[in-house]
Automatic annotation (TrEMBL):
Residue intervals of the YetF C-terminal domain: 92-162
Name the UniProt record assigns to this protein: DUF421 domain-containing protein
Transmembrane segments: 72-93
Species in which this protein is naturally found: Amycolatopsis bartoniae
Record's keyword annotation contains Endoplasmic reticulum: no
Length: 177
C-alpha cells in the first residue's frame, strides 16, 4: 500500500531547500557567466541553468531521493524564481543588466584583431577566422566589426554592410504621402 504522507508531505525544511537551491543556482550562474560565456551557444546562461537544475530537481523529486514530491516542487520553484528575478532585475536596472547579460565584446574593428579582448575570452585567431569563414568572409580586411554577443555567438558586420549603414540618406525619400 502506498504511504501518501511520505510521498506528498515535505520532509526537508523549506528553508534548507531555499538555501541549497539558491546557493547552487547563484554559484553556477556566476561560474557560467564568468568562465563559460562562449560555451553556452545560442542558449543564454540563465536558460541553460534553469534547464539543467530543473531536470536534476525534478528527477530527484520523481525518483524519491527527496522522499516527497513537494520537496522537489519547492526546489523547482526556487530555481524558476531566481531565473525570473534575475531577468526582472536586468530589465529594470541598467547596472544589473550588465551583470546578468554581458555587453557584446568587440573582437575585430576595421579589419584589426583586438587581441586583448580575444585573450580575455580565450579566443584564438584560428577560432575567430573559422567563425568568419562560416559567415562567408575570407579576409580580415573585409570586416568592419566582429563582436562576441552575450550568448557566446559571433556577429559579423562586413565592410560593405557598414558603408550602407553610414551612407547619408536622401532627404527627398522622407517625403510624406
Amino acid at each position: 500500500m502506498l504511504d501518501w504522507s511520505q510521498i506528498l508531505e515535505p520532509n526537508t525544511h523549506p528553508l534548507e531547500i531555499l538555501v541549497r537551491g539558491s546557493s547552487m543556482y547563484l554559484g553556477l550562474f556566476v561560474l557560467l557567466r564568468v568562465i563559460l560565456k562562449r560555451e553556452s551557444g545560442t542558449t543564454g546562461v540563465t536558460d541553460l541553468l534553469v534547464v539543467v537544475l530543473i531536470a536534476d530537481a525534478a528527477q530527484n523529486g520523481m525518483a524519491g531521493q527527496y522522499q516527497s514530491i513537494s520537496d522537489g516542487l519547492l526546489l523547482v520553484a526556487v530555481i524558476i524564481g531566481w531565473s525570473f528575478l534575475l531577468n526582472w532585475v536586468a530589465v529594470h536596472w541598467r547596472w544589473a543588466e550588465r551583470l546578468v547579460r554581458p555587453r557584446p565584446l568587440p573582437l575585430v574593428r576595421d579589419g584589426v584583431l583586438l587581441r586583448r579582448n580575444m585573450r580575455h575570452e580565450l579566443i584564438t585567431e584560428a577560432e575567430l577566422r573559422a567563425q568568419l569563414r562560416e559567415q562567408g568572409i575570407a579576409h580580415l580586411e573585409d570586416v568592419h566589426e566582429v563582436r562576441m554577443e552575450a550568448d557566446g555567438q559571433f556577429s559579423v558586420i562586413p565592410c560593405e554592410q557598414a558603408k550602407d549603414q553610414h551612407r547619408p540618406r536622401n532627404p527627398r525619400s522622407k517625403q510624406r504621402v
